[in-house]
Amino acid sequence: MTDDDARPVPDALELTQLPTLQGARMVMGFSGWMDGGDVSTGTVAHLIRSLDARPFGRIAPDDFYLYGVPGPMEVAAMFRPHVKITDGLIVDYRPPASTFYVCEDASLVLFTGREPNMRWEQYARCVLAVADQLNVEMIYFVGSVSGLVPHTREPRLYCSLSDADFKPTMEQLGMRFTSYEGPSSLVTYLLRECGHRGTPMVTLVAEIPAYIQGINPHCIESVVRRLAAMLNLDMPMDDLRQARDIFDEKLSKVLADKDELPELIAKLESDYDSEVFDTQMGDLKQWLTERGVRPD
Fold this sequence. Notes:
This protein has nine helices and eleven strands. By secondary structure, it is of the alpha/beta class. The strands form two sheets. The protein has a nine-stranded mixed beta sheet, sandwiched between helices. A two-stranded antiparallel sheet has the order 4-5. The model is unreliable at 1-5 (pLDDT under 50).
């Protein structure tokens, strides 16, 4: 951080028990955009559990989220805080959480939250203020996007960087570089801000099967495994591998009952392996949707 980057701590940032770290790294995950298959939030949640990371701060939610969104109830419900009422009494009320965790042994900061609906600049200042105070040397975002990927293949990882100087390192790790034009996300805004500030940041985005709905343990396991290798983290993987195997077995049984599907999957595998992309995924997803196939 340079003197020009020094800023007061934002009011929305609430920190307790600020750790002292050497060579700190930060890993972020957000629900909403780029969290297909729960890969973004699921990866960070596994790191928090496996590393026994403790919370040390949060971003207060009220300035960043829309609660009263007009529209049908099923749409508006996605924006509301979650509440539980038992026997007439409120026993749980949960607004959107944006929480910082730390594992001192690994010099790792973990951050998970819901992408804010508004005031991206102020929200980003909160995230980067923590990175500044802990002298974070590299920020990683993990996420996912739906794509032309068969469930029988390892998802590819694509990356975007705050600085072109990091490209050789990412190439050595087998990363592909993102080429994209379309709606942006908070992560892209953070990446741009990190570039302006000279704070190293990389996004790691897995391309996952578009025709599988809900949580995807197979892709979460793949991303956690590769991220752990990049960060030189020694962590247990047995629970993820067990969830992956159960998921794969369940998915195979569901798809095996569909006579037309093996040919479509084989074509998708061939195109994926040869990096030939066409409309086959759209046809497959439509075919599954029409038959009510939801492997989750």
